[in-house]
């Protein structure tokens, strides 16, 4: 078995698993990065399997999570594992260009991004070999997108489990420190981009004599990115101007549109369709702080959210919000997903995280 990688991605320095297909089908007018890991076990109809579908956080490209998804595939060799990037987000110019015929509604606002994901799920389910069931995983703002599109899926779609991994589903005081600079940059993203890149190039060239090598060193040392594929993707994102513009535009939308109060109704709607699991990070995590878990547990005790949801909330201080930057943290999150899916099947113990004592 050999990986099937779109030609535009073959020279970017990434390492791809042998069972991966990387393509850019058009979804809602945008060519969209799609990762599709084929099942590792043989079958007469390999595509008619349960599918684990991942919705990334913002940076918006599923390539940021290649090794995380590959580890999930190893845990679940009988499953298909897939992921879709955001409209307008990626590491090659063709998928981020705001060219004629592309609808900015899908790239620039959360409602449009949620519709984009719903359309992708619909295409998956209407394919010649649709999955028998879905497990949804979201990271950060990807959890918010799932909460928007999952209730709209037909009732015939069997979503057995949904995992909110370090979720950004509620605006909290800790996000205020991020909102002012983001609002400022969003007011003139191209000017900000030019200033940032010029400053970075001058700094890195002076310190290393080679901007590409220096950029990777900076991202690894200052950004704490230890995973090789994640580091390479981050480096490509940093020098793709169109990506930066779309990232800032959507990020500005996030901090202005994510609910200020606990999204009780959205949680209830999702929990009514699936087994909902929450994983909160240490860090501290400014986007999904553990205080939000405490607030949700209070709502459980008050009867607004079911006890079965509260029983699947875990605080894991061993990880940070962007856990994908570190191989050990990736393993912790994969173990959490495995424990949650085993619990649904009544086939294993609870994940040994900190729960209701918070």
UniProtKB/TrEMBL annotation:
Record Pfam families:
LIDHydrolase
Keywords (alphabetical) are: Hydrolase, Lipid droplet
The record's section on SUPFAM superfamilies has: alpha/beta-Hydrolases (SSF53474)
| Origin: domain of life | Eukaryota
Which InterPro entries does UniProt cross-reference here?
AB_hydrolase_fold, LDAH
Q: Where in the cell is it found?
A: Lipid droplet
What sections of the sequence does the record tag as coiled-coil?
A: none
Q: Which PANTHER family match?
A: LIPASE, LIPID DROPLET-ASSOCIATED HYDROLASE
The UniProt similarity line reads: Belongs to the AB hydrolase superfamily. LDAH family.
Write the protein's name. Answer: Lipid droplet-associated hydrolase
């Amino acid at each position: 078995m050999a990986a099937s990688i779109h030609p535009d991605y073959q020279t970017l320095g990434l390492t791809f698993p042998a069972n991966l297909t990387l393509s850019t089908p058009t979804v809602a007018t945008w060519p969209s990065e799609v990762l599709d890991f084929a099942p590792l076990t043989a079958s007469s109809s390999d595509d008619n399997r349960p599918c684990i579908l991942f919705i990334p956080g913002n940076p918006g490209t599923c390539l940021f999570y290649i090794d995380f998804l590959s580890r999930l595939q190893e845990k679940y060799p009988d499953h298909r594992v897939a992921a879709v990037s955001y409209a307008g987000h990626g590491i090659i110019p063709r998928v981020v260009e705001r060219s004629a015929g592309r609808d900015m509604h899908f790239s620039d606002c959360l409602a449009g991004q949620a519709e984009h994901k719903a359309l992708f799920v619909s295409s998956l389910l209407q394919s010649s070999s649709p999955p028998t069931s879905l497990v949804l995983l979201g990271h950060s703002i990807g959890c918010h997108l799932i909460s928007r599109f999952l209730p709209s899926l037909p009732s015939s779609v069997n979503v057995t489990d949904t995992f909110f991994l370090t979720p950004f589903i509620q605006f909290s005081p800790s996000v205020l420190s991020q909102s002012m600079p983001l609002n400022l940059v969003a007011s003139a993203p191209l000017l900000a981009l030019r200033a940032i890149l010029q400053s970075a190039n001058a700094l890195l060239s002076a310190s290393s004599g080679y901007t590409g090598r220096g950029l990777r060193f900076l991202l690894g040392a200052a950004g704490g990115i230890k995973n090789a594929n994640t580091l390479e993707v981050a480096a490509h994102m940093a020098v793709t101007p169109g990506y930066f513009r779309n990232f800032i535009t959507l990020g500005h939308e996030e901090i202005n549109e994510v609910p200020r109060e606990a999204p009780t109704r959205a949680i209830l709607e999702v929990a009514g369709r699936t087994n909902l699991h929450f994983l909160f990070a240490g860090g501290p995590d400014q986007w999904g702080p553990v205080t939000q878990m405490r607030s949700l547990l209070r709502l459980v005790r008050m009867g607004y959210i079911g006890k079965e949801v509260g029983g699947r909330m875990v605080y894991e201080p061993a990880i940070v919000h962007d856990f994908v930057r570190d191989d050990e943290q990736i393993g912790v999150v994969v173990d959490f997903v495995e424990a949650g899916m085993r619990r649904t099947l009544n086939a294993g113990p609870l994940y040994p995280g900190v729960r209701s004592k918070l």
